[in-house]
Structure formats: C-alpha cells, structure tokens
Amino acid sequence: MLGRRSVFVALLAVAVGVYLLPSPIDPKPHVLKGPPPALEGPLAVNTRLQNGQRLFTGKLHGPESFTADGNGNVYTGTVDGKLWRIGLDDSLTLVTQMGQNLPECGSSTDYEPVCGRPHGVRVDRHGQLIVADSYFGLHSVDPTTGEKTLLVANSQGADGVPFAFLNGLEISSQTGIIYFTDSSSRWGRRHVKLEVRILMDNMIGYPDNIRLSDHGTFLVGVTTPRFRKLMPPFLDMIAPYPAVKRFLAKVIPLSVYNLLLPRYALVLELGLDGELVGTLHDPEGRLTWAISDVFQHRGRTYLGSTDLPFLPVLEGWDS
Length: 319
Hints:
alpha+beta; single chain; 319 residues; 4-stranded antiparallel beta sheet
C-alpha cells in the first residue's frame, strides 16, 4: 500500500512540475474552416514527382532555395551554413561559409547560430549573389571569390524590431530592389515548428516558397500535406486547444515532430490568377518529401528541402 502511495505521489509531483513549467509558446485557438480538400480534380493523386533522380546524396544537406547565373550555374545553401555552386556538368563547388566553418556544422540545429543557415538566394543585376541567412542577415556574396558583404544585419531589423528568421527573397528585375521576408520576429530557424502565421486557411498543406515556372505559372512546394483520412490531421485536431499546444511544446522535443511528418511530396501549380491548375505528387516519398522550393532551369526542375541529405531533380516537366 505504501509503495502504491509513493508511486502516486511521485507521479503527481511530476505532473504538477510539468504543469508549472513555462511554455515557450502562447498560442491562440483556431478552428479550420473545414476538413482538408479532397484529392480530386486538380488535386488528384499522381506519381509525377517520382520521375526524377537524387543528386549529391550525403554531400548536400537541406538545399532549401535555388538561383542561377547567366552562365547556367545553379546556387543553393545548406544546413551546415555553406553556399554551393552546381556546374553545368553537375560538379559541386563550395562558394563560401556564411558563419564559422566548424566540424560540427550541420550535425545539429544547435550549431546554426554559429555556422549560419543560408535560405533565400538570388543573383542581382551585377552578377552578385544576394543571400538571406537566417541568423546573420542579408549579404551580398561574390560567386567567384566567396567574399561576403553584409547588407542588413538581423540586429538592425525593421521598425525597431530585430529580425529573427530571414527566409525568402526576390529582386526586382526593373528596379533592383531586394524584397526579403522575416518569418518570425520571435523564433529562429531552428525553432520554426513553434511558429504558425495564418494567411490562407484550409489549404491542402503548409506551403513554403512560391516560384515562377518556365511556362508562366506559379509553383508552390508543400512541406507538410493535410489529407483526409480516418482521423483528422494531427495539427487540425489540436488547433482549437491552446492548452494542449502549450503542453506539447513543453514536453516534446522539436526533433520528434519530424518523425510525425508523412513522407509525401506535393507541389501545387497555380495560374497567374491564383487558381489551382494542377499538382505533382510522390505518394510514397520515393524521390523526396517536404518540398520547400521548386526551381526550373534549363529543362530541369530542382526540388528543395530544409533537411533532406540529397538534391532531388526532375528532368523535364511531365504533364
């Protein structure tokens, strides 16, 4: 009897302790407008994303965004803070390290604030790379020498608020003005799973970058799809309950959430009016999943990701 009482007291103490722990988030209740859209019409399941190959397996870890120069070279950044050039012959050359070049870079997100994490990358009118590093700010990088010039530091921010997570960018071809995004003023890249901004509701999944295709449409990579199954998607179920979300943020490590993500790749193709005109699927994740960017260049489609240790590409555009 005494043993059972001791176990109960111990469990009660643990429960009270967890309850009293501060939560890193203060979420609001949110009720989605309805169940996820049905996989029919333009959303009908197909295998168009399985007709590709993986490049640089084990060499490129998390090639998230892409751009190309006038000579046909493609550039991308990876989780170890490195910026790379991919040649016409699929050669791979290091351009620069955004932060410190430590052996630990890329082994854990804990090293990202030291090593850097380049996300958005574009080529400006002078042939320089413009790079949005999540931790070190907006830089201009010489693609030949790798020399970095700081344009805007995260600490500078805007309207008195420092940047916390620089992400995407675009450069106006007419004016040369650089437009870039700060995904959160509170959470850095390594804590991205704690941050949700509602802009459009009840989509088929959580979108990332939007890129113009080579045939006049928009291509949107979906990092986490939402599908109708026997049970609603996990995030749908907990959306109305702030207490549940606060509790989960306290007790479950962020790395565990990756294990809950479906290995399902999805790309949305939108017309210039924003209407869905088609989709590309990889239902079993045979080639890739959790797509962050869809970049078309010289007949090839590059599929980005934030964490996968390879670069998936499609040769051509099967419709």
